[in-house]
Amino acid sequence: MAATAAGPVHEALAALGLVDHHCHGVVTTALDRAGFESLLTEGEAWPGSGISPFDSPVGLAVRRHCAPVLDLPRHAPPEDYLARRAELGAREVNRRFLAAAGTAALCVDTGYAPERLTTPAELAGAAGRGTAAYEVVRLESVAEGVAARGVAAGAYAAAVDTAVRQAVARPGVVAVKSVAAYRTGFALDPARPSDAEVTRAAAAWLARGSGGGALPLADPVLVRHLLWTAVDLGLPLQLHTGFGDGDLRLHRADPALLTDWLHLTAGTIPVMLLHCWPYQRQAAYLAAVFEHVYLDVGLALHHVGPYRAGAVLAEALEITPFRKLLYSSDAYGLAEFHHLGAVAFRQGLAEVLRRLLDIDELSLADALRIARWTGRDNALRVYHLPDPAGHAEGLDARGTTPTADLPDERP
Amino acid sequence: MAATAAGPVHEALAALGLVDHHCHGVVTTALDRAGFESLLTEGEAWPGSGISPFDSPVGLAVRRHCAPVLDLPRHAPPEDYLARRAELGAREVNRRFLAAAGTAALCVDTGYAPERLTTPAELAGAAGRGTAAYEVVRLESVAEGVAARGVAAGAYAAAVDTAVRQAVARPGVVAVKSVAAYRTGFALDPARPSDAEVTRAAAAWLARGSGGGALPLADPVLVRHLLWTAVDLGLPLQLHTGFGDGDLRLHRADPALLTDWLHLTAGTIPVMLLHCWPYQRQAAYLAAVFEHVYLDVGLALHHVGPYRAGAVLAEALEITPFRKLLYSSDAYGLAEFHHLGAVAFRQGLAEVLRRLLDIDELSLADALRIARWTGRDNALRVYHLPDPAGHAEGLDARGTTPTADLPDERP
Amino acid sequence: MAATAAGPVHEALAALGLVDHHCHGVVTTALDRAGFESLLTEGEAWPGSGISPFDSPVGLAVRRHCAPVLDLPRHAPPEDYLARRAELGAREVNRRFLAAAGTAALCVDTGYAPERLTTPAELAGAAGRGTAAYEVVRLESVAEGVAARGVAAGAYAAAVDTAVRQAVARPGVVAVKSVAAYRTGFALDPARPSDAEVTRAAAAWLARGSGGGALPLADPVLVRHLLWTAVDLGLPLQLHTGFGDGDLRLHRADPALLTDWLHLTAGTIPVMLLHCWPYQRQAAYLAAVFEHVYLDVGLALHHVGPYRAGAVLAEALEITPFRKLLYSSDAYGLAEFHHLGAVAFRQGLAEVLRRLLDIDELSLADALRIARWTGRDNALRVYHLPDPAGHAEGLDARGTTPTADLPDERP
């Protein structure tokens, strides 16, 4: 894929106001080299090792695609990049990258913030131009909050239910999220646990945490209970799958392991498989055979960089219905990732579609429709978001299934 | 890969009468939109969802490659496509696509037909031009038939053996097939079950089905018993692996899970790994290290479309010996898939070989030989089919191991 | 990737003296067709089957890239190739391929030699031009030697420790290696086994082997014990992962299964994941999140050939930090594989980097640095090898993290 490639699909994707259906806030303080590098990698930074996260595909992508946003030449050295970043200050840096991302709407996971991050409203403010922000509630964080505030085991299920319902009743909440992939992996008993099982598991978990606040929720019964809580709630459920940090057991985050649970939940809530790499083909299979399953390749987009993003998207799109692929950045901490995710998605998808167009495997109208659906409309539809007006000019090719005709999906 | 790419390998593959070593019949009745769409997807159709199977890679491929066969422009809208299809009628539609496929011989799995499908003879008749049809017997269907007709548990093994031998004794039967991937997955005890184990498992299974006809055979012991029945029979055994419909647990259909069983069956029957996607590299490994293992990427070919078929074939061919890859469409229900599978195989393989030729990684004679072997000769050899004369003109480049010198493989 | 592609990265990689951090010796006797073919495949050769290993990707690669080294035309027929090979004699053949490989240093696994192979010194001698040779000690072979010489179960652990320490104290030993992937797979209890567990397991294993010499070490406790022995030793540990011969269960050689053990060993020895295919993305994930994890795609390089080597390397490099990828051939038996591995690595990596350069995703200085690091410097650094002078001309572009500044990694 060529950064310099042009043509109608590249132009349409460049002009499209993306809906980023899963992302996080960014840090608001100045970052020194160690701080920046620790956010640049999904691993830990390895100070003293001589191995810098700049010397990785995402590091190259930052120097190539982010340096110019800070008025530096392409491929600027890390030292220059960090100096310029410090000179501009966090507020200006965040503003530039969020604006450059060209995102029309952001769905922000607020459940993980070991450091101070922007709120959804602050993030949207940095993006400017009328960007809308929505919130995604992380279920494990809610349950851990319930435990931290103190609850009897027998009252745990009801307290979690109440807390989750309160959390999603706040304005702007459009989905919930689970990190079951991290906590237990997906090789779980798929069945809804009984009340007695939940009480028993809660008792054991709460006992372990007593005296020192809540432990991370990693009990298989309680993790399953949260997944089923999401089903009862009726909102789309975002599930981390595949790639992430070193706390994963990657093979247990293969979304194919969810199949039994997906059979049990067919006809209920939309299930949004996040990230998926390197299991994007497995995720695509699930999206092809289950009506309620969707996917994205967020996080991978900026880590593999714009060139390989096209290859990953091409695999994801081998069998995925075009109504089932969404855009997310999964940007966390660094505003750069909001920009890089958008660049990688636009360039990667444009290149996949251009190649198909070049050999006449699809029509231009189809290509433009697929770009608009995956970059924006699929998310508007699944999350029932209002149309972010003014971002869709130039993308009015009509598909076979116009959005306006689509029925409501929420159960 | 370019539909418009030309050159000697494209021309040779275009002229080659393919042997489709695994396919199904097609429906003979008129299809309305719902009926057509339900056959277009490996999932269920999702009426009322607003998500049409036309809006997927296979839908694009139908509009691109099948519309012209029905005298429509490329990329015709679904409505036009379905109207023209209805106008021509099922008989004419089937005739056109089967003829367009250019298949010299078809091996037809007759064991799954929830709706009325063409027989192998009818399918060959639709293809015309002297196309030969052979039959593949599905083992689970035979066993379920034995149960449905009533059998004592102690007589089950002998009755299945008799029924399978009768089924394969019919003229034109060249192989058996198992859908163990669907019923239990491949993480099975690889050993041949004892008579007592089979009787005990049969008793439990037959008891569950008593009074209401046979249940699907999904008992691990009985599934293993069928695999070993195939070994005793001596015919090639086709195994569904990887991609399929929503009844799969994809990760349990990884053919690598068969390794222990393949060690036990080394030196016996040819084992034909069907489909394999997304585990085509795992299948290639097995074909590279086990003399009796072969593979295809059928089903995936038409679902991913001709462009990505090249990518999937390139992965499958990374280490697969060229005597071990076969062509299959796995077309089911829609005659379109017989055509699309052939188009995707010819274009995908031609593109893979052309790129190697362009950089002089192989000679033209080698490329033509690989095309002829994988598209036709490997199947003729494994299934002992007569040479479908008249389809091989232009492909007489001599390989290092001429077919005529190859000894008989059947044990 | 084009054999004929040129440009500064191709030229730099062509001129770079590679460090092959994992390979084996080559046979020193004449090979007839059966002997050559049995070394050409990771499976068994299948005499009488009519299927020749020449009819596979590695066979094409030998005819294309090795025939000219023996003064034959490209794509020479197997018969001509074998005749010329016999004519030149093993010594001259080995000399030509080792010299053609352009390897500056070789780390030779001496622990597997069912036939007579060159010693590391002989191998370096064949390579000429001051090529250095180092040795890698295979842990299972040492333990099996301890058992073969006779040891009481209670003395097993101490005897193995002593024998391993003696083995690695020999001049030129730079690493140890485990084939746990073959013996048990990686789904092991990650914890260090207790002395009592080791004694109990040793007693059972030694009893099985009594009277007939040592059995292959495949007990899970004893395999774990060897992994932890390596941790105590402090040398880099090479681990076979992924692709290999028919004794594997490929899915149990997925390096992701090592995650729990990698958590326990963080901060200790460098862990070198060898081969990895088809799990190169899983290996890349581990290298990205664990400071002590490195990978290569050796063995796959020559088996998939130079064209697909680029595709495999591109997947491996999607997220791998550039300090974490190394070159290995894993050549065994045939001197051709030393040459083919080097050709495939140089061409594959050059093509990956050229594409990125063409679209300005990285700078030329970055591309040259990545080439030099992965082809040579990363191995020098991990194994503390002296700089093989005279091989690095033309590759003096300065990276962001010059080698000279890197601290010692060995614990």
TrEMBL record, chains A, B, C:
Residues 137-385 form the Amidohydrolase-related domain. Keywords: Hydrolase. Residues 391-411 are annotated as: Disordered. One of its GO terms (molecular function) is hydrolase activity. PANTHER family: AMIDOHYDROLASE 2 FAMILY PROTEIN, NODULIN 6. This is Amidohydrolase family protein. It comes from Streptomyces mexicanus.
